[in-house]
Amino acid sequence: IRAHELREKTSSDLNKQLKELKTELATLRVQKVTGGNPARLAKIKEVRKGIARVNTVISHKKITKLRKLFAGKKYKPIDLRPKKTRDIRRRLNHSEAGAKHIREIKRRHHWHNTKNAHKSL
Question: Which of 1, 68, 76, 115 could lock onto 80 through a cystine, CB 3.0 to 4.6 A?
Answer without folding.
Answer: 76
